[in-house]
Amino acid sequence: MFKPYSIEEGRFLVKLARTAVEEYLRSGKVIQPPQDTPPRLLKDKYGVFTTIEVFMGRDRRGELRGCIGFPEAVYNTAGGVIRSAIAAAVEDPRFEPMGIDELDRVTFEVSILSPLELLEPGNPRSYPGRIVVGRHGIVIQKGYYSGLLLPQVPVEYCWDSMTFLNEGCMKAFLPPDCWLDEDTSVLIYEAQIFREVEPRGEVVERDLVEELRGCKNANSSEG
């Protein structure tokens, strides 16, 4: 299981994401990692994503407000979080740029990504069995098209691995069964995820396996 950071380092990253957005919305400045940044966050390089959601209550999934990041390592971890957080707040093409008055109504989530792994080309029917919902995220690539879904997405919607692949293809603006094409690349990765439980509140590490179990149990009860 990919877990490079402690909960203390995760809390630091989530707070750093919020601080970066707040300063950018106030002054237009991109902050630098502060002096008390844990050394590993300045040394390590991982892909990172920041997700911002409108807070709907502790027991409800938030409404997406922005999500942008870097699938592969571009900056050190702290620098990547700063840049991905600002981009999620003001550059996500699906939403209008955030206003500073929204900060008390949104939560921040930071995902640290493991290196991408290409699934065996030429054997696409094996992909659903290779992808573990609750562990893996996916990237679908075909020609100029590319789509990424974080590991928390299929858990939140209680998808199976085949649905996850279909949705990944559609995220790339491709037909849902494009993953069966031999010229489509499917890559997987893992992520360590830290999030605020409420705006400016406690930061926790998400346990996707436990969340998936709860989703399945809820669906069984409804059935």
Describe the structure.
- By secondary structure, the protein is α+β, with helices and mostly antiparallel strands.
- The chain has two domains: 7-114 and 191-210, Hypothetical protein ph0010, domain 1 (Glycoprotein, Type 4 Pilin, 2-Layer Sandwich); 117-188, Dna Ligase, domain 1 (2-Layer Sandwich).
- The protein is built from seven helices and nine strands; from the N terminus they run ααββαββαββααβββα.
- It has helices at residues 7-27, 39-43, 77-90, 127-130, 152-157, 161-171, 208-222; strands at 47-54, 63-70, 106-113, 117-118, 137-142, 145-149, 185-189, 191-196, 203-205.
- Strand 8 and strand 9 (203-205) form a beta hairpin.
- Helix 1 crosses helix 3.
Radius of gyration: 17 Å
Uncertain ranges: none
Q: How many strand segments?
A: 9
The arrangement of helices and strands along the chain is HHEEHEEHEEHHEEEH
Task: Assign the CATH class of the largest domain.
Answer: Alpha Beta
Whole-Å distance between the termini? 32 Å
Going by CATH, what is the homologous superfamily of the largest domain? Hypothetical protein ph0010, domain 1
The third-level CATH topology of the largest domain is Glycoprotein, Type 4 Pilin
**Residue share in β-strands:** 15-25%
